[in-house]
Amino acid sequence: MKTVRMTTAQALVCYLTQQYLEDEGLAQPLVAGMFGIFGHGNVNGIGQALQAMPSLRFIQAKNEQGMVHAAIAYAKAKNRKALWACTTSIGPGALNMVTGAAVATVNRLPVLLLPGDVFADRLPDPVLQQLEAGMNGTLSVNDALVPVSRYWDRITRPSQLMAALDRALEVLTDPAETGAVTLALPQDVQCEAYEFPRSWLEPRTHHLERRSLEPLVLAASVQSIQRSRRPLLVVGGGARYSGAAEVLTELMEQCHIPMAETQAGKGLIASDHPWNLGAIGVTGTRVANRTAAEADLLIAVGTRLTDFTTASHTAFSDAARWIGLNVNRHDAYKMGALPALADVRTGLRQWQAALASLKYVTSYDPAIVAHGKADWNHEVERLGTYVQAPRWSQTQALVAINHEFRATDVVIAAAGGLPGDLHRLWQSAGHDSYHLEYGFSCMGYEIAGALGQALATPTRRVFALVGDGSYLMLHSELVTAVQEGVSLTVIVFDNGGYQCIRGLAQQHGGDGQGNAFQFHAEAVGEENAPLPLDFAHNAESLGAVGVRVETLEQLRTAINESRQEIRPTVIWLRVDPESSSDAYDAWWRVDVAAVSSDPAVERAYQEGLARREDGARYRAR
């Protein structure tokens, strides 16, 4: 057997450069590069290997969580057909990746995490940044990544790298079980040499699995659809990753089956398509939620069916039946569905052919569906009507920004009040133009995610919409964008705090205290006065372009001028903290104190009990 003497880190980098993913005859490199922040735990191992083998692109990040978010966004933009690795030192650097790992795993998106670790030989034990965990000498902070990783391993000998990487690539290329993969790399093992087989380091092509529906499942699911008069497609991210836009459109038009979108599914089909009813659930449109309540069959297409989609299990009729089309068995079985395990595009194509032979058409009247969509469009227009005031409403600003969008633009958001209004009001052109991280609703994802999206789609303009609270949590990757020459636009919606949560508390009888960004009595400044934050100047201090806008014309100008900038642009916009849209025929369970001397809290508790019983009854059916 021919071998080559390399360090563990060198073999790791070499292996990653030789991995390809093939889908329908086209093979492309799987690993686009590596984000990293070097420390004593990885600079002389992986750092040296990257220097020796520069064929793998390296980008210096500014925050470990941020670089994982960027890698996640890249994988999402590439529909899981390409990914980035992320390397850190031991200790705080590794631990900072835990949140990002959870975002990747919850959203079923591949990312490879390569944290340094303490010495495997333990000779200088304990070392700088080591966690001494009492009675367990094998633990390090990297063990915190175990529950948020699809696959986790610690490489304590160079020879272990081969089996671990092969297993890692199996998970990273698995459409059903992908997510974060963590390989903990002790700093001494990274630098140790081993005779690696040359055959293991040769190019390897992984083939994207497109599973078909089993014949019995195909027959049962087609029969269930055929019996239905008012089915509804609930379309999630799995349809996007499968590339199912064309067949989904054909199925809707052929059979007159309407669709509703989850956050991950929005942007696959244009909002103006006649059978696209828009967002569903807690952040849904009136027409989609009312159609869902009257549907006799719900067809979950590549979705995890979280409580926002199901309105905490109160959005649907107790008598409605379910089919779950998904590559992931766990998701396919949700809501007591008939599990239809298949690649979404493949499964939809099988249904389309079978239903065409049966000449199946639903009982929906296209004119009534069109009327429902028109009614909702009037509501969007009402909420977006611009009225000059001391502050914009959030809905006015979103509709105004939407009007300036081009078909090739991409909008990104993640947490707070913005995702709800975006889901309801945003008119998407399709073509994967809508990028929301709402599986984990992670504050701080937006700007790093915009960087990852821009790296994946350099010919498209990327706009990150972020609240002031989320911006303050994590905006450091603006510097990375400046450093790498990546141009993107960030629009900061400044409402003076965590106002989404303040409003949530007030809706349930609380006063929302602790959520506004304001001075306190003991601080320098007038008590309860807003903090004097300037996001435009902050952006300029980081090397980006900062713009403050107050009028509609200034906003339009800033958006279009940002397209010409070679640096990132941050547009700062003040909005009214109480200016989001409301829920439309949907409820979200957020429990309220069962004991309180406040009548408002008592009323909120009693109102919630009835809705909780509705959800419990649905689960028990």
| Number of spatially distinct domains | 3
Distance between the termini: 61 Å
| Tally of DSSP helical segments | 24
Could you say what the CATH topology of the largest domain is called? Answer: Rossmann fold
**What percentage of residues falls in helices of 4 or more residues?**
25-40%
Record the SSE blueprint.
Layout: E1 3-7, H1 8-17, E2 19-23, E3 26-29, E4 31-36, H2 46-52, E5 57-60, H3 64-77, E6 83-88, H4 92-95, H5 98-106, E7 111-117, E8 151-154, H6 160-172, E9 180-186, H7 187-191, E10 193-197, E11 204-207, H8 215-227, E12 231-235, H9 237-242, H10 245-255, E13 259-261, E14 276-279, H11 286-294, E15 297-301, H12 307-310, E16 321-326, H13 329-332, E17 338-341, H14 344-357, H15 366-384, H16 394-403, E18 410-413, H17 418-425, E19 434-436, H18 445-456, E20 462-467, H19 468-473, H20 477-484, E21 489-494, H21 499-507, H22 535-541, E22 545-549, H23 552-562, E23 569-574, H24 599-620
Helix pairs in contact: 1-2, 3-5, 3-18, 8-14, 10-14, 15-16, 16-17
Labels describing this entry:
621 residues; alpha/beta; Rossmann fold; 3 domains; 6-stranded parallel sheet; 24 helices; 23 strands; globular
Write up what this structure looks like.
It is a single chain. Helix 3 (64-77) packs across helix 18 (445-456) and helix 16 (394-403) packs across helix 17 (418-425). The chain folds into 3 domains: 3-207, Rossmann fold, CATH 3.40.50; 215-372, 3-Layer(aba) Sandwich (Rossmann fold); 385-574, Thiamin diphosphate (ThDP)-binding fold, Pyr/PP domains (Rossmann fold, 3-Layer(aba) Sandwich). Helices cover 38% and strands 18% of the residues. The longest helix has 22 residues, at 599-620. The chain has 621 residues and is an alpha/beta fold. The strands form 5 sheets. Strands 5-4-6-7-9-8 form a 6-stranded parallel β-sheet, with helices on both faces. Strands 14-13-12-15-16-17 form a 6-stranded parallel β-sheet, with helices on both faces.
